[in-house]
Design brief:
The chain is mostly beta strands. About 5% of the residues lie in helices and about 50% in strands. The chain has a 16-stranded mixed sheet that branches. Strand 11 and strand 12 form a beta hairpin. The radius of gyration is 18 Å and the shape is globular. The protein starts with a helix and ends in a 5-residue tail after the last strand.
C-alpha cells in the first residue's frame, strides 16, 4: 500500500530532445530561486482518507557544466507512524537550464523498506543522447545510452515547465504533447486540459485553478490512461494546489500545505510569498 502512496508523493513533484529552440522554450514567470512547497499525501482505501506522507519541493540557482541552472529538489517520506512497517525516504533532484528549463541532469534515489535504487541521467544535446547509470539493490551498475527525442523532460523538470505553459491557447479537451523520461525509457505522452475549476479552502478562500489530466504510463502503480487530475492555481505563480489519482487499489491525493519564496504577489491569489493552506481532504 505505502509503495503506491510513495509514487503519488513523488508524482506530485509534477501534486507532471533536441536543442531546445522552438516550442519547448518558455519564459519562466512562475517560480524563482528560494521557492519551497510542502504537500501532504493521503491514501483512500474504501471511504476514509488517511494521512500517509509528505513531500517538499525546493528550487535554488546553481552552476552545472558552466551553465546557470535551477537545481530542483523533491524529498518524499511516509508518515513516521508507518516507519515500523514500511520506511520510505525518496529523493529526486535535477539541474534545468535557467533560460530554457531544458533538463541537463536528473538523479533519483529510492529507499523503500529493503528496496534501494539509484537512477542518474545526463542529457547531451550536442550528440542528441541521454546517458544513464542505474543501480538497483545490490546488482551491478547498468550503463546505457538513449537516443533523445525533441522536448524530453524528466519527471521533476516537467512540472516546472508545465507551470509556465500558456494555457490560454488551449480549449477544454485539448491535448498538450509531452515527452517524458521514465525509468530509462522515453514515452510520448500528453496532458489533457480540462478547463477551470475552483477549489475552496476551509478558511473560505477560493482558488481558481487550471485543471488537467496527464496520460499515465501503465505499470505496477497505475492502469495507465488519464486517471490522474492536477489543479494549478490560475495566477502568475501556477502552484500545484492538489493532485488526485486512482491506483490499482484505492486512490491517492496530494494537497498543498505550505508555501514559501513565491515569485509573484501581484496578479496572484497569494498576497504574501509565504503562508499555509488548509484545503479539505
Amino acid at each position: 500500500m505505502l509503495k503506491k502512496i510513495s509514487f503519488l508523493i513523488l508524482i506530485i513533484l509534477m501534486c507532471f530532445a533536441q536543442d531546445m529552440k522552438s516550442q519547448c522554450v518558455v519564459e519562466n514567470f512562475a517560480f524563482q530561486s528560494g521557492e519551497k512547497l510542502v504537500f501532504r499525501g493521503y491514501y483512500n482505501w474504501g471511504f476514509i482518507w488517511v494521512a500517509a506522507g509528505e513531500v517538499e519541493l525546493s528550487v535554488k540557482t546553481d552552476q552545472f557544466q558552466n551553465k546557470e541552472v535551477f537545481k530542483i529538489k523533491g524529498e518524499g517520506k511516509n508518515a513516521k507512524a508507518f516507519d515500523w512497517f514500511f520506511k520510505l525516504r525518496d529523493t529526486l533532484s535535477c539541474y534545468a537550464d535557467a533560460k530554457t528549463l531544458a533538463p541537463l541532469y536528473f538523479d533519483r534515489r529510492t529507499h523503500e523498506a529493503k528496496y534501494d535504487a539509484h537512477h542518474e541521467y545526463w542529457f547531451d544535446y550536442k550528440s542528441n543522447q541521454i546517458r544513464s547509470q542505474i543501480q538497483k539493490r545490490d546488482k551491478p551498475v547498468k550503463l546505457d545510452t538513449l537516443k533523445n527525442k525533441p522536448c524530453t523532460f524528466d519527471i521533476l523538470s516537467v512540472a516546472y515547465y508545465v507551470r509556465n505553459l500558456d494555457f490560454s491557447k488551449y480549449k477544454k479537451g485539448d491535448k498538450i504533447p509531452i515527452s517524458m523520461l521514465i525509468d530509462n525509457e522515453i514515452h510520448s505522452l500528453y496532458i489533457r486540459y480540462r478547463g477551470l475549476e475552483t477549489i475552496k479552502a476551509n478558511s473560505g478562500e477560493r482558488f481558481e485553478c487550471l485543471k488537467f489530466s496527464p496520460l499515465l504510463v501503465e505499470g505496477t502503480m497505475f492502469k495507465g490512461g488519464e486517471d490522474m487530475t492536477v489543479w494549478l492555481s490560475n495566477d502568475d505563480n501556477r502552484i500545484p494546489i492538489m493532485v488526485e489519482a486512482k491506483v490499482l487499489v484505492g486512490s491517492v491525493k496530494g494537497i498543498l500545505e505550505s508555501y514559501d519564496g513565491l515569485r509573484n504577489t501581484k496578479n496572484s491569489f497569494f498576497k504574501s510569498n509565504k503562508g499555509n493552506l488548509d484545503i479539505a481532504e
